[in-house]
């Protein structure tokens, strides 16, 4: 069965869920080893006011955890990632204990003990004896299916698996297992809870090793079998084409050898081909190099290693898709955010092409008989969205930009995917319209992908072409009959805001804000940002001057006052509801951006121009002012857009653009000279 239908009973964007219970006030983590305290630290950072209990049977582990928390908080403050008072709050209200009776008021208990079924069962018994009947209980097992560890519980319906990845305080993904005894409400609540607290929950089927560890464990296991062809260092080097750190480097970091033996022994229930490599039993540390070091690998050795590593990666990926263990998009994305792959496994297949993948799989079948081979056509494994979730709500396609690691910044691929969804349903009579929103609670989108900007710097033609190419979604929306409504769930910046203003309607959360930070990068919003706002909401012209020239943010209320936003709401589910309603209101009433000249007020920009404490470039501000003026004076919207692209081209050739963009990418403050 298709994974999406099987696993996502309530929609793929977890924040659509109206939670059946509030955020927890007290949380317990059982097990103060490696990952337990890190899970606790993530929850305490996301919800600093809660009371956290860290439970272990070994006092030294609790002491170590306490010290680790202090170090994490200190580092975060030193790196200016956290304010001092927040760090203090995080470190307060933590109980380090060996006494289960203390956790009696916990709303959520996460077990993160050793992978041992009788031990886990004992823990659940102890937990169930003290907590309320409605407390949610989860296990962080990375391999044991839910029915095996929860089978002795009195109320297994409130239990499931929540599998974190290292380092759990920072790593985004959490596998959340849907199994037959768990209440739908409990799984839905956890799905919502993780997204609400900044994680990316991925719902996975209840099979041995779930989804992503099937990739990781077998990748490492086959790497060990490859030791008859090359050294650990050579194998790591070949793997580095695809991952940040090779399998042996990662195993060393995680003391992972016993884990692979354990998890692959479990997987042998599916066939002897999963047998763990015997060498794991006799090696503690591998002799390998730090990622990136130079290592010679003869071409023939490289070929054998590369084919085998790709073979096992593809075999597991095909199997996951064919058995509906996880959704294609989650598999591809999970490989990147959980396992450190530079591209998802399905991306690697796409880039190699069908013939090469077939060759690799044929060879893999000969070398490693028994392992899964693809069951469907090559193209069917590529038929998914890499950066979008697409949900259907009352006949409206709700598109969620899912790239939270970059605050949903818009890459070319995201643009192409949005366009492909709009095109696919633009003429479908069953679809009333579209909503575009962002994943998570922080951002609708933090703008266009700044990483791509350097390519166009200093080249007028390239910069103009780039702005035009990036406008395809907007130009398509200009000609649509079906409404597209932006649901602004957090910050809407730069290129993200330029998508929102081109939608036919906009609703927002009360705490959302809008900003054109481009001038702080020495550039301007080139995809209609200097043009569209003045034509659609002339009442806001003065505010738009400040936004574009000195990066002043606009809040939700201001957006409502000028008519840019039609409704402000308090929470995410209401936001989506309001956006879907707005799509319905706008049926048959979609208006294009007006032609004709528009009156704009005079500019009053301080000298030197400043955005907060940042001195801006006079030259860049000058180009912006001219672009806005000329755009407003243009007779048609199409001409005005061209003026905007021209402004983009001109500013891309300034020293200011070079300095601003380099400074962002080098994570420093820009220093504009003129
Ligand atoms: N393009 C590419 N990546 C972006 C991005 C963008 N527009 N905006 C944010 N990101 C990335 C960051 O580089 C960072 O990645 P990293 O973790 O690999 O370093 C990640 O998203 C998180 O952002 P970070 O800056 O660490 O978060 P923060 O809370 O400290 O700051 C912002 C948030 C929005 C103030 C800051 O990210 C920012 O200024 N972004 C650029 C906004 C902009 O100028 N947009 C207009 C471009 S058109």
Folded structure, characterized:
Helices cover 43% and strands 13% of the residues. With 674 residues, it is α/β, with parallel strands linked by helices. The chain has three domains: 2-205, NAD(P)-binding Rossmann-like Domain (Rossmann fold, 3-Layer(aba) Sandwich); 212-382, N-(1-d-carboxylethyl)-l-norvaline Dehydrogenase, domain 2 (Orthogonal Bundle), CATH 1.10.1040.50; 388-665, 2-enoyl-CoA Hydratase, Chain A, domain 1, CATH 3.90.226. The longest helix is centred in the middle third of the chain and has 24 residues, at 299-322. The radius of gyration is 27 Å and the shape is globular. Bound molecules: coenzyme A (COA).
Count every beta strand, where a strand is a DSSP E run of 2 or more residues.
Answer: 20
CATH top level class name of the largest domain = Alpha Beta
Percent strand equals 5-15%
Average pLDDT over all residues: 96
- The CATH topology of the largest domain is given as 2-enoyl-CoA Hydratase, Chain A, domain 1
Low-pLDDT stretches: none
In CATH, the architecture of the largest domain is Alpha-Beta Complex
Kindly report the name of the CATH homologous superfamily of the largest domain: 2-enoyl-CoA Hydratase, Chain A, domain 1
Which cofactor or ligand species appear? coenzyme A
In this structure, how is the largest beta sheet organized? 8 strands, mixed
Sheet/helix structural class: alpha/beta
Query: How far apart lie the N and C ends?
Result: 61 Å
Tally of DSSP helical segments: 27
Radius of gyration, taken over Cα atoms and rounded to an integer in Å: 27 Å
What fraction, in percent, of the residue positions are helical? 40-55%
Structural domain count:
3
The coarse silhouette is globular
Strand order of the largest sheet: 3-2-1-4-5-6-7-8
């Amino acid at each position: 069965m298709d994974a999406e239908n099987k696993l996502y009973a309530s929609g793929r964007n977890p924040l659509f869920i109206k939670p059946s219970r509030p955020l927890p006030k007290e949380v317990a983590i059982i097990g103060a080893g490696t990952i337990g305290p890190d899970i606790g630290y993530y929850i305490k950072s996301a919800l600093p006011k809660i009371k956290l209990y860290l439970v272990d049977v070994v006092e030294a582990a609790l002491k170590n955890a306490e010290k680790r928390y202090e170090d994490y908080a200190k580092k975060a403050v030193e790196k200016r990632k956290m304010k001092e008072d927040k760090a203090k709050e995080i470190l307060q209200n933590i109980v380090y204990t060996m006494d289960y009776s203390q956790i009696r008021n916990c709303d959520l208990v996460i077990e993160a003990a050793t992978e041992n079924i009788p031990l886990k069962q004992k823990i659940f018994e102890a937990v169930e004896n003290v907590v309320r009947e409605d407390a949610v209980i989860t296990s962080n097992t990375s391999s044991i299916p839910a029915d095996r560890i929860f089978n002795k519980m009195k109320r297994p319906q409130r239990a499931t698996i929540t599998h974190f990845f290292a380092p759990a305080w920072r790593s985004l993904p959490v596998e959340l297992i849907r199994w037959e005894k768990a209440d739908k409400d409990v799984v839905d609540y956890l799905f919502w809870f993780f997204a609400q607290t900044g994680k990316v929950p991925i719902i996975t089927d209840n099979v041995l090793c779930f989804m992503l560890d099937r990739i990781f464990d077998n990748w490492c296991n086959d790497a060990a079998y490859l030791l008859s062809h090359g050294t650990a260092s050579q194998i790591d080097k070949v793997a580095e084409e695809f991952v940040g750190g090779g399998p042996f480097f990662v195993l060393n970091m995680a003391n992972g050898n016993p884990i692979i033996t354990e998890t692959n022994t479990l997987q042998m229930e599916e066939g002897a081909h999963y047998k763990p490599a015997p060498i794991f039993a006799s090696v503690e540390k591998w002799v390998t190099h730090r990622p990136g070091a130079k290592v010679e690998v003869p071409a023939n050795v490289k070929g054998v290693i590369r084919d085998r590593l790709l073979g096992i990666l593809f075999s597991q990926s095909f199997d996951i898709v064919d058995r509906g263990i996880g959704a294609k998009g989650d598999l591809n994305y999970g490989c990147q955010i959980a396992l450190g792959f530079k591209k998802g496994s399905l991306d690697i297949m796409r880039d190699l092409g069908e013939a090469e993948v077939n060759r690799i799989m044929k060879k893999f079948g000969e070398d490693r008989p028994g392992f899964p081979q693809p069951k469907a056509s090559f193209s069917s494994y590529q038929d998914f969205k890499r950066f979008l979730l697409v949900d259907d709500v009352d006949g409206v396609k709700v598109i969620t930009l899912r790239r939270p690691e970059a605050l949903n910044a818009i890459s070319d691929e995201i643009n192409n995917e949005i366009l492909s969804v709009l095109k696919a349903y633009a003429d479908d009579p069953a679809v009333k319209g579209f909503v575009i929103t962002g994943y998570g609670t922080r951002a609708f989108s933090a703008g266009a992908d700044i990483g791509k900007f350097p390519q166009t710097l200093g080249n007028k033609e390239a910069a103009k072409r780039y702005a035009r190419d990036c406008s395809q979604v907007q130009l398509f929306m200009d000609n649509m009959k079906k409404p597209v409504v932006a649901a602004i769930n957090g910050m809407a910046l730069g290129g993200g805001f330029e998508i929102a203003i081109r939608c036919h309607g906009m609703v927002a959360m009360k705490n959302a804000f809008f900003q054109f930070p481009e001038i702080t990068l020495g550039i301007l919003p080139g995809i209609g940002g200097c043009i569209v706002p003045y034509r659609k909401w002339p009442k806001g012209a003065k505010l738009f001057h400040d936004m574009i020239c000195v990066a002043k943010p606009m809040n939700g209320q201001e957006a409502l006052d000028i008519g840019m936003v039609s409704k402000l709401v308090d929470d995410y589910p209401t936001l989506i509801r309001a956006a879907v309603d707005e799509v319905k209101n706008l049926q048959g009433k979609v208006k294009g951006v007006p032609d004709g000249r528009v009156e704009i007020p005079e500019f009053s920009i301080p000298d030197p121009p400043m955005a907060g404490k940042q001195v801006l470039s006079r030259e860049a501000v000058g180009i912006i002012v001219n672009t806005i003026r000329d755009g407003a004076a243009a007779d048609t919207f199409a001409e005005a857009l061209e003026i905007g692209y021209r402004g983009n081209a001109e500013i891309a050739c300034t020293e200011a653009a070079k300095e601003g963009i380099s400074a962002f990418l080098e994570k420093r403050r820009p220093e504009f000279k003129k």
